[in-house]
Amino acid sequence: MDHPIKQVAITGGTHGNELTGVYLVKHWSAYPDEVTRDSFSTELHLANPDANQQVRRYIDQDLNRQFNIHDLNNPELTGCEQQRAKDLNKLLGPKEDPRVDFVIDLHTTTANMGMSLIFNTNDPLVVGMAFYVKQKMPHATLFYHPSDRLEDNFLTSVGRLNGFLIEAGPIAQGLLNHHVYSESQTAVTHALDYLEKVNQGETIDLPSQMSGYQFIEKIPLPEDASGEIIAMVHPNLQNKDYQPINPGDPLFITLAGETIPYAGDATVYGAFINEAAYYDQHIGLSLMKKVDVALEDTK
Amino acid sequence: MDHPIKQVAITGGTHGNELTGVYLVKHWSAYPDEVTRDSFSTELHLANPDANQQVRRYIDQDLNRQFNIHDLNNPELTGCEQQRAKDLNKLLGPKEDPRVDFVIDLHTTTANMGMSLIFNTNDPLVVGMAFYVKQKMPHATLFYHPSDRLEDNFLTSVGRLNGFLIEAGPIAQGLLNHHVYSESQTAVTHALDYLEKVNQGETIDLPSQMSGYQFIEKIPLPEDASGEIIAMVHPNLQNKDYQPINPGDPLFITLAGETIPYAGDATVYGAFINEAAYYDQHIGLSLMKKVDVALEDTK
Do A276 and B181 make contact, defined as CB atoms within 8 angstroms? Predict the structure, then answer.
């Protein structure tokens, strides 16, 4: 029988201060049985050891924005993470014809996003994995952000199938929290079980669609004329990821206590609300729309 | 009338990734009336602008461990924060005969410590401030850590009175949270009001003692033979700052899921439980004992 998936990579520490993935990779290196399945090989990688050493998200650039095909093939990009992306592309890819079928990349967020399953393709094998994990972990949220695999700049896009990013929170950077660790471990276990079932030709009973959220845009933190941050996420919005934001709802509050409402004209939903890693770009949150994600027939 | 307090310094960003104090100092610089009182002068300082620029706790050393009198007077200590401590000692001190009477230093923690009022002296003026702020904010916790002012290595010890550290959490590093911001702002307001009342000779009705916690020791995260962290704070202990830890209670859980209990023989209390900033030293928590803090008669 032909197994569609032969090689799976699990990557941790793509952001060097997100320790959950780092320590899960270390743990699985000592207990490889937990991530071993009969029908495919699993490999484990620390994605950004230099940044991890310094407990920083990145040294020069955000590694998880460096995997666009043009950037990977641009010899002028020589920053630490630009070079590391090229090394990972050699190791796991190359992107144009990847050795690895599937990359599961482990992330955490300071936002109250619980267990979010981020996937960037409507490929039924990937959507099926998201549906399968959500069936096993009903509190998980589907975060759909479709993109062209070659143009996509996430590490997961180096796999043949535009893979799977596990985003668990809320957790501060630079530490471990057993709940977040255990949730991430469980989600990976289910994801690998799913691939094993697919390879073995097992019938997997999945719905034809599930509710999720699709990325619309990022909303900047308010700035003054000199570009300084002058407001923070409003307390009514803090921790309210995936809950509705209606026109006129409080979005930000200035340092002096003035509320800034949402000026849009339709109900949206927040994600990555008050994510520390986005302060360098003065981003306050992502806006999402509620969508029904369809699982297309694979036959 | 002789005013015991003439000069108060409020410092923020002593740890460069604790943004609450940084943005409060920026806010008060624009709205100085909020921290102005009739009977003394208030000055505002960003304590570690270089680390703040990089959104890191420190560049070379933890600034808030550099104010021991021997280190301040040691010309061989030339790291970024060692030098910065000497500059702050010139600006606010010198420690042996300080210009500034009182330093209020603003901090945040990833631990669930709420509003903690940390003070390192039994001087009645300082203890009185802690009592006064706790009267106004009854949910605040008194964190008593007595030390000799000249030997003390905290920034607050540069003031003539071994001052006052406001530690608010839980909050991730590198972001603002309005609740933590507002709580810190309120605590400083009460602290300044207290100094104003003292200076004006007002009668302040304070109890002769209040319950608090006194620092005992720091407990390391379990390591393997090569010095790698192999366990994290146990989920039963996470977020349980200032709650009792009894002999045999779970303290840590290994990456593989094995529980490590507390091996002490008396009930203690945790603080700084899973503080991200202490991972560099592999510290899991502080142990505290419950104490009655006495306010000595000032007459």
Answer: no
Residue ranges making up the domain that contains B259? 214-289
CA B282 – CA A259 distance, rounded (Å) = 40
- Domain boundary among the residues B206, B225, B247 is at B206
Q: Is A90 in the same domain as A48?
A: yes
* Cβ within 8 Å of residue A252, ≥6 positions away: A221, A222, A231, A232, A233, A234, A259, A260, A284
Residue B297 confidence (pLDDT): 74
Between β-strands B283-294 and B268-271, what pairing exists: parallel, antiparallel or unpaired?
antiparallel
Residue indicated by tokens 């104003």: B196
Residue B299 has pLDDT above 50, yes or no: no
Rg of chain B's alpha carbons, rounded to an integer?
19
Please tell me whether residues A228 and A125 are part of one structural domain: no
ipTM over 0.85: yes
CATH no. for residue A81?
3.40.630.10
Q: Which of A112, A232, A273 to mutate against chain B (most B CBs within 10 Å)?
A: A232
Mean pLDDT computed over A272-293: 97
Q: Which residue in A19, A31, A232 is closest to B176 by CB distance?
A: A232
pTM of the predicted protein model: 0.96
A263 touching chain B per CB within 8 A = no
Residue B189 and residue B233 in one domain: no
Residue B299 is assigned to a structural domain of this protein: no
Q: A163 pLDDT band (50/70/90 cuts)?
A: confident
**Would you tell me how many other CB atoms lie within 10 Å of the CB of residue A38?**
8
Average pLDDT of the residues of chain B:
96
Neighbour tally for A261: CB within 10 Å = 14
Say yes or no: A256 and A141 in one domain: no
Do B14 and B110 sit in the same domain of this protein?
A: yes
Q: Do A178 and B233 count as a contact with CB atoms less than 8 A apart?
A: yes
Q: Does the residue B105 lie in any domain? A: yes
Mutate: best of A255, A272, A280, partner B, most B CBs <10 A? A255
Question: Which residues in chain B (161-200) have CB-CB distances under 8 A to chain A?
Answer: 170-179, 181
Q: Say yes or no: A141 and A41 in one domain.
A: yes
Domains contained in chain B, number: 2
The percentage of chain B sitting over the pLDDT mark of 70, rounded to a whole number, equals: 99
Could you tell me which chain B residue has the CA closest to the CA of A56?
B56
Q: For the segment B208-250, what is each residue's pLDDT rounded down to a tens digit?
A: 999 999 999 999 999 999 999 999 999 999 999 999 999 999 9
Q: Are residues A35 and A143 in the same domain?
A: yes
CATH number of the domain that B258 lies in?
A: 2.20.25.160
Would the pLDDT of B298 be above 80? no
Whether B175 sits inside 8 A of A274 (CB atoms) is yes
Does A178 contact B30 at a Cβ distance shorter than 8 Å? no
B103 and B180, same domain (yes or no): yes
For B173, which of A24, A229, A276 is closest by C-beta distance? Answer: A276
Token pair 């008050």 is found at A274
**Which residues of chain A are within 8 Å of residue B256 when distances are taken between CB atoms?**
27, 30-31
pLDDT of residue B294: 97
